[in-house]
Amino acid sequence: MRLGWSFILRGMSLALATEIAARPSPRCVMYLTGQHPITPPIDQLGHVTHVALAFMRSETFNDPDRSDWPLFLTVDQTRPKFLRDTKVMIAIGGWGDTAGFAEAALTDETRKNFAENVARMVKATGADGVDIDWEYPGGNGEDYKKVPNASKAWELTAYPLLLAALRAALGPSKILSAAVPGLPRDMLAFSSQTLPHIMRHLDFLNIMTYDMMNRRDTITKHHTGIKLSLEAVDAYIANGARPADINLGFAFYTKYILTEHDACAGGSAVGCPTLLLEDPETGADLGRTGGFSWHDEVPGDVRESFEQALKLGRYDEEGGGYYYWDGDRDIWWTFDNADAIQRKFPLVVERKGLGGVFAWGLGEDAPAYEHLAAVSEGLGGLKDKGAGRKVEL
């Protein structure tokens, strides 16, 4: 039974009420990227608890003699852009960056070398910790057509060992987090056998609940919709992650996909066939899908279609996503507007008792920062309800 917050506090012991009131505010992690290294005025960043500078390449840390740590923005340059207690982290890896991690994870010696180099970097830069973006250990990454998953099966056990080495090198006071897949088909390294071992070493998971429609798909769906987000969160919880250690991902960018005309025009635009999006032999992008951030210039060939999507798009109550199908140009648009973002707080973050949220990425939302404002409003509502934690009697 769920009761009002004030009533719950009145009915509890003073000690328990004090403990709940003292729980930390929800985490809010913002990736700050080299592609869009800009930030809003600091008064718009009151809910941001962590910023992750993205990225350092993974192979950087396999050289035992490495002494330089290249960043598009130093930690010292970053701190004044945020509130004083905001944690500044370094994100290592990213989409397509797998070879350096695989080399690092191979043996006890390579894992120790990698981890010690990461720790040296953290000390030298003054960072508060690192975010590990080996997004697809065990397979299903960018090269999945060229390098079969079977040849990467060893990574399923090596990944937790690499995280263990990182925690040992960083010590207990530095933050260690990981960005992880949002689609169950990609959660190869995050099974019920491996995830409990992984979570022993991490402070939190950033579940990438976006790009959940991509060029491997053949029908239209919401790339960051509520239904798929809940499936992702439920999978991690079922496999051993505590809800409080999970951050829900938000996408500050759009996606569009080319579709088959007749099938989409004859029925619902949700779940209708796309054109072939990737080469069936190589997995290469066939150029029939795209996307851009709110800070980017809209590509000329889709500008008019995007303007229609902004004006005529609708919210799908079943799948939980904002979308538009342009029947004249056969383009499926999927992205979050402010309304779609705010719906996720009661329906996903609060409902599941998650520890926080994150977004890719902060500068991608410039110059208006409307999506950041929507996230901040959602976080403000959670804080009013007790930092997003469920209290059930």
Automatic annotation (TrEMBL):
The keyword Ribonucleoprotein does not apply. The keyword Signal applies. Keywords: Signal. It comes from the Eukaryota. It is an enzyme of class 3 (hydrolase). GO terms for cellular component: extracellular region. PROSITE patterns: GH18_2. Gene3D superfamilies: Glycosidases. One of its GO terms (molecular function) is endochitinase activity. InterPro entries: Chitinase_II/V-like_cat (IPR011583), GH (IPR017853), Glyco_hydro18_cat (IPR001223), Glycosyl_Hydrlase_18 (IPR050314). Residues 1-17 form the signal peptide. Its EC number is 3.2.1.14. This is chitinase.
